[in-house]
Amino acid sequence: MTETILNRADPSAERPTDSQPLYRQLADQYRRAIGNGVLRPGDRMPSMRAFMQRHGVSLATATESYRVLERAALIDARPRAGYFVRVPPQAALPAAAEPDLALPGAAQFVGIHSAISTLVSTYQRYPHALNLGGATASPDLYPTGALQKAALRALRARPTLLTAAGPDQGDPALRAVIARRALAAGIQIGADDIIMTHGGIEAVNLALRAVTQPGDTVAVESPCFFGLLQALESLGLRALEIPTSPSTGLAIEALAFALHTHPDIKAVVVVPNLQNPLGSVMPDAHKASLVELCARAGIPLIEDDPYRELVDGVQPPRSLKAWDTDGTVIHCTSFNKTLAPGMRVGWINGGRWHPRIGMLKFAQSRHNEQLSQVVLAGFLETSAYERHLRRLRDGLRLQRERMAAAVAASFPDGTRFTPPCGGMFFWIELPREVSSAAFFDAALEDGIRVMPGTVFSNAGRFDHFIRLSCPSTDLDLADEAVRRLGRLAARMAAHAFKR
Amino acid sequence: MTETILNRADPSAERPTDSQPLYRQLADQYRRAIGNGVLRPGDRMPSMRAFMQRHGVSLATATESYRVLERAALIDARPRAGYFVRVPPQAALPAAAEPDLALPGAAQFVGIHSAISTLVSTYQRYPHALNLGGATASPDLYPTGALQKAALRALRARPTLLTAAGPDQGDPALRAVIARRALAAGIQIGADDIIMTHGGIEAVNLALRAVTQPGDTVAVESPCFFGLLQALESLGLRALEIPTSPSTGLAIEALAFALHTHPDIKAVVVVPNLQNPLGSVMPDAHKASLVELCARAGIPLIEDDPYRELVDGVQPPRSLKAWDTDGTVIHCTSFNKTLAPGMRVGWINGGRWHPRIGMLKFAQSRHNEQLSQVVLAGFLETSAYERHLRRLRDGLRLQRERMAAAVAASFPDGTRFTPPCGGMFFWIELPREVSSAAFFDAALEDGIRVMPGTVFSNAGRFDHFIRLSCPSTDLDLADEAVRRLGRLAARMAAHAFKR
């Protein structure tokens, strides 16, 4: 097995990363092998001596490589036995169910805003509840100090950032560095093909406004991020929910069928990488089919892609836009989840609707404020962003592993879920008898905020699901909270059974 | 005359401003008297001795008061004769014409975006042209250094501003200080009645989205800020242009007639203070009538009020919202014109549509980024903002006076305009024979950018108007540019006459 790794670990097979030190390059090779399943949980790692010989490196480099892997919780040292690929501390739990492929009718739902408002006003009465209902990582996983320094530098160098109006599409230096970085997502665009937006949600709104009229139908994933359902409601659009798999994302055949039977579908919105809330990542073949299907049907495909760089592994997957040949895909993303939730910086490439989106953005909110953009441009130019992403992914993986173990250990029979391969969300199916609305209320009483499944659909499909997010890098805190939730679910299931 | 002033100058008649030094309070009393016309151009000011006696102040205080008035170009020293109220260096030019009160039909114009795009792509070919077509003051009139320092302080004190998500409605401290300051505009609201927005334009968009459906008609001023026409176009709304006076703003009788004859009007949008481009300020009685008219008709009145604090005088006029008793008025404003064009901070009070506007803002772009809000909150808490506003108003008045003189001296017969009592815009009617589109092109060739009247209407009413804005605190530069424009207009008028 070790030989296989060494052969596969030939650096020339991968995009070279000469900017990284050797120990990091070697650690990344092993990280990839573990991620690929080439090295499996419990496999023995090469001894230090073997590692040094095979890669022609010093003891210091070998030690440092192993240290990186150990800190990333990928390998464990066993006393007097050497290093082993870590066995994730996760007990068995049935995987999430694959979706029923039957389509509900398209619905213009006008209650999601008020459902969310009710939710918000309820949890605001519990300001001290531990938040497992959020959508960003723990604050200490973001590079606060480095961004603060970058902002201080930018302000000193360019004092008029606050008082001079900026260019319409956004800061040119930021757009240039984003265009270069987009190559890693498989996206070939220039700085002029990018418009900066107020977070990814403004980008998605602009995309919808560019290609639809009120009353039109939009195909969305099911379950669907409630923020998208809110945007649809506020724009007077109808949502057609397409079944979506917890492992491979949107069911392409179901979409093909829907496009055939619903000629009023004017757009498709998909989160291809770490779907919210499922956590699914579409395989490349599915991505290619989806883009081709939409291009053939002449339907704009709106890609909401804020989580791509949170997918585990050395090289995050590509965006749908990578397969786009004729401008069918409108690509929307942001730095809210990966870097700086407080800065509200997103961007959009509008494909063949780019000029119209530029006009809508100008008419709606003009250019973004300047300082955040200049700070980001400076930060993204350096290797600090890549280092930060590795640390963020490692931190989230540790949290997910520990939480997955706690879920498996404490939730009652009938619970199902598939741990995602990145990001911060768990989409958990509770036993049929447990309503997530009642669970939400009871959990708040117990000092914990969760997100009930009811707001992830207009069609009432997910009443016994909850979305949990990783609340804190304090693993014991999260572990204890998840166990309390598990006991609560067990009590509620038992109580329902007794009635 | 002087006695009259002294009687009127009783500080108890005005809102006390104890935070200001005495010399400033006295200067403000005289500034107000000059603004009111109580002291007229050419009137003699009291002698220093008389001033000291009458106000019971020292020579130093008296000297300082006069120095403030002299720097603000309100009084002139004449050798061996004393101080006199300044005669503005403005030759006679016919005042702008009052509007024809006939209404055009409501039009869903779908060309304003492309007209603006053509304009933009044309002037982008002349990047070095002097910009008299802009909509913010000269950069050196904004408090760059003070805001920079405030931002550095905020970043050091609160490093997580960039990485932690903020509250939905905006920073609570900023909303609290805005609510306190709104009292000066006659607006009584609390911090919770305010939602921070990305500039005033997002606020106006949200207001329109809250109260209209695509296809509805919105009554607007004529001429109308082209940004509003763009917003209407992008939202699929029709514009009904209501005649608007260069001196008193929207013609209320014409609006009353329109509401009677066009039952499909779903909103009215008005810039009551320093209308863009006219520069008119509605008299209080008109403001009261307008609010009452809309309240009686049950039509939401959207107030776009970014220029209020740029009106000359000690105490800026009140907002329409001051007369609102039942939530009919949606108040929109920003700090883009008065303080910091680069920060893109605006706010909205949605009147009786406030909850719906809150939902739309959340669905469209979530909360504003944090840093700008915290910087503004700190700045607005101090007296620095008031000091800055005085300096900004004084600087703009000097520029307007010099430009008005240059217009009067150099533009051909048939030119008409009314100098506004604040702000940065001149709305100039050229001789009938001069097309503003041709004038725009010819001026660019000559190195000067202006705004042609064609984009201020959907109904093609202002083809021989231009909007000029104050380009620079270098008065000679602006003077020379305006004189070149005048000679150009004269040549074009003569050429048209010869044909």
TrEMBL record, chains A, B:
Keywords, ordered alphabetically: Aminotransferase, DNA-binding, Pyridoxal phosphate, Transcription, Transcription regulation, Transferase
CDD domains registered for this protein in UniProt: AAT_like, WHTH_GntR
GO molecular function: DNA binding; DNA-binding transcription factor activity; pyridoxal phosphate binding; transaminase activity
InterPro entries: Aminotransferase_I/II_large, HTH_trans_reg/aminotransferase, PyrdxlP-dep_Trfase, PyrdxlP-dep_Trfase_major, PyrdxlP-dep_Trfase_small, Tscrpt_reg_HTH_GntR, WH-like_DNA-bd_sf, WH_DNA-bd_sf
Domain HTH gntR-type, first and last residues per copy: 20-88
Annotated family: In the C-terminal section; belongs to the class-I pyridoxal-phosphate-dependent aminotransferase family.
Name under which the protein is recorded: PLP-dependent aminotransferase family protein
Native organism: Paraburkholderia ginsengisoli
